[in-house]
Amino acid sequence: MSGTTIDGNVLNALNGKMPTGGGAGADLQDSFMTLLVTQLKNQDPMNPMENAEMTSQLAQINTVSGIAELNETLAGINNQIDAGQTLQAAALIGKGVLVPGNRVLAGEEGQTTPIGIELATSADEVKVSIVSESGEVVRTFEPFSMSPGVETLQWDGRLSDGSLAPEGAYRVVVSASLDGTTVPTNTLNYALVSGVSPSDRGPLLDLGGISDQVTLDDIRQIF
């Protein structure tokens, strides 16, 4: 054979020595060295491998080995990040958070959970209504302006006629506009973090049935 070409016999000699899928850097380097030595043993004496070819292949060995070691390092960093996120999430147990959702709870003596509104752009008119489970609007807030970001409202638990709302869950309906043009809104509801569980998406927060499990990225405000 000539130059750097390797025939089937040489490849058969290497059978079982090449790493199969994500081997360590040392294994990759060892396999490439085996391949290079086999090339040298089987090269054509009349047309030997040139120094430039040898240097090029040695550089490839170092490159592959370096990439494998980099991947191992990145995997270790990712594990540390996951562990840090889990500790961060565990610290939220027992605390209240605002997450995407449109539910508000009314309790005894007008006690209610906070309402959150998130806007990406300013609005000169934001309207908020409280709707019962039957779909009846039971309370409407005075329109107000709002800058981009998150703001919280507190419903006093009273209906439009001034009486206390019955205990239970209600729905919050929000609309916003700027100079008559609709502005996208994101309604947020309050929930208490009662537990944390791991997942492929990172730590999931258990909100005790007030909302579906959420990730840390879903939290807009912590109380």
UniProtKB/TrEMBL annotation:
It comes from the Bacteria. Keywords: Bacterial flagellum biogenesis, Cell projection, Cilium, Flagellum. The gene is flgD. InterPro entries: FlgD, FlgD/Vpr_Ig-like, FLgD_Tudor. Residues 109-177 form the FlgD/Vpr Ig-like domain. The keyword Mitochondrion does not apply. GO terms for biological process: bacterial-type flagellum organization. Required for flagellar hook formation. May act as a scaffolding protein. It comes from Parahaliea mediterranea. It holds the Pfam family FLgD_tudor. Residues 85-220 form the FlgD Tudor-like domain. This is Basal-body rod modification protein FlgD.
